[in-house]
Amino acid sequence: MDFSFYNQLLLIFACSVMAIALLNKLRMPPILGYLAIGIILGPAVSDSIADYQTIALLAEIGVVFLLFSIGLEFSFAQLVAMRRLVLGLGGIQVISVTALIFFVGWLFQLPITVALLAAAGMALSSTAIVSKELTEHNELRTEHGQITIAILIFQDIAAVLFLTLIPTLGSDSYQELGHAVLLALGKGIGLFIAMLFIGKFLLPKLFHEVATARSQELFLLTVLVVALFAGWITHFLSLSMALGGFLAGMMLGESHYRHQIEHDIRPFRDVLLGLFFVSVGAMLNLNLFIQNWMIILVATVSLLAVKSLLIAILTYLFSKQRESALTTGLYLSQSGEFCLALIALAGKQQLIDQESQSLLLAISILSMVTTPFMIRYSSLIVKWAFPLSPIKPADSHAQEIAQLTHKLNRHTIICGYGRVGQSIGRFLKQQQLPYTALDDDPIRIKEASKAESHIYYGDCRRIELLKAIGLNKACLAVVCIDDPSQAITITKNIRSLRGDIPIIVRTRDDTYLEALKEVGATEVIPEVLESSLMLISHVLVMLDQPGAVVRKLIDQVRKDRYQLLHGYYQGEKSTLIDAKGKPRQILHAITLTDDAVCIDQPLNEQLLANYSVEIHDIKRNDHPITNRFGTLLKPGDCILVSGLAEDIEQVENLLLLG
Asked: Cα(35)–Cα(658) distance, rounded to whole angstroms?
């Protein structure tokens, strides 16, 4: 069996682990790590990637998954609503940038074919990089995010047309060129109609049947098959595989399974996208870059500047928002993967010489490398370009909020307007009790402020904003921030301003209960544990237990800081860490053996205090021992403990082995 491909894939992934870990510490975009690995392992340096075609195929599948997940964020209705941006702005952008770059190439006396290829390729941006950055920065729903995606959609359609026309450029027949254009348009329209039919009638029924089977493996496999099959259809029709992925995702964008599909496909998308960026880096000819670095650098900077400026101007004409327009221009200023495909295909058709091909590839790749930095520092560039922007500075923003809330009195302050904060707000509104809320999610605030008053954007940790929303006149503060460190800071700041105001803090569990109490929280409500208590109270009432007894039991659990609810028994599908990578508290029964060192000795309470564990129960012959720390332990005794897995393991070793 040939393990060469396996060895290459292992080498890429191993290098990726080290590169991404390093870049995370340096707070640099991981894309740069993948590109660097591609350069190092590619023919430019070590030439370690021999089976390049297979790697490139996996990389293209990653782009299909990316466009599929982006398609899930849209629906057919949204696409129709965005037709002005997609067809209007997107079409004008591609035509104008292509014409401008072609004119520049003609001025420098480049061959017509080379100038046309360069213009068509450079007019297209990197769907993979820009879409990934928009997703990671949670900007898909922002104004510039929507405009950027709309332009990228048209660019993908234009890329299909350009790729179709490449074989005809070597022909002098205008009739053949016209046939190619009509054929590409016909395929695209036919595919769209077919996908619309499939998405409307077949896919919902398919996923309904799969969901009723309640098999995670079946659901995931169905998602993968749908995404890959859509890419295969478009490839079969000589269209872009990425376009097929986007259309399939868009058809599922209105389904009830959208969020589950997006969650399931994310690991495959991210891993295979890494391979895509590695394959891009491997295409760089380092020797040519060193020899012509000045030409490549000047050309790249010129491309970024001219393209971003032109797109910004066009976007402003459509949106009338200069900040969003410039941001969109910066996001789309680079060349993209379709440019690489165009140049590679043109090279196979012998439409471009080897040196021009290598130079264009180097310019495209270098512009793609700069993209993460352009996106990361776009806000600073926008502020530099528009120093007198109508966007209010921090102190003006606080003054504006203070003016809008000055009439509020004896109101409730809600810090964090997510799911829990909104639920509290609805009940307060129903009871006609005044409240105001702060949240740092601009999209959420934009949506909420349309329907509700006194909902403002801002960081709840900032003291000037807490003052602005009327903390000095408020009667209650509710902290609904999911991040424990932020919740602690907010609680501390509120208590420093108002020593008498009650503060209720919502947490996920009781891990930070003591820390929140120390900084001034009046009540800490662990969401998971309180929902368990609510369910327990219903169970006891349904079992005809007296209401007074039930309330007493529930109050006692709260008084004991939820000790009775700490930990749970692990199951086959349980994990020792939660979704955020934090260790879970578990329950574990330790059975004492005949040769355990603790036999005929009482539990050492002081010694166990060194570990974060709690003793829930000690049983002997299935009967509980009331005096847990005064009774001598015997073989067969079962000690029920809760805590972190690492601490429980140390306590078990202490009891059994000493």
From this structure: 52
Per-residue pLDDT tens for 262-281? Answer: 778 878 777 877 887 787 77
- Measured in degrees and rounded to the nearest 5, phi and psi for residue 545 equal -80, 140
Burial 154-172 (b: 16+ CB within 10 A, else e): bbbbbbbbbbbbbebbeee
Residues near 490 by beta carbon (within 8 Å), at least 6 away in sequence: 415, 460, 461, 479, 481
For residue 437, what are the β-bridge partners? 414, 455
Pairing mode of beta strands 585-591, 638-644:
antiparallel
List, for residues 283-316, the tens digit of each pLDDT value: 777 788 888 889 999 999 999 999 999 999 999 9
User: What does pLDDT average to over the chain?
Assistant: 80
- As a whole number of angstroms, the distance between CA 188 and CA 233 comes to 11
- Residue 501 · residue 476 · CB < 8 Å: yes
**Ramachandran assignment for 323, one of left (phi > 0), alpha (psi -120 to 50 degrees), beta (any other):** alpha
Cβ–Cβ under 8 Å, residues 557 and 534: no
Q: Is 413 helix (H, G, I), strand (E, B) or coil?
A: strand
Strand order in the sheet with 623-624: 585-591, 638-644, 613-620, 623-624
The three-state secondary structure class of 441 is coil
| Helix axes 293-319 and 90-107, enclosed angle (nearest 10) | 150
% of the chain surpassing 70 pLDDT:
85
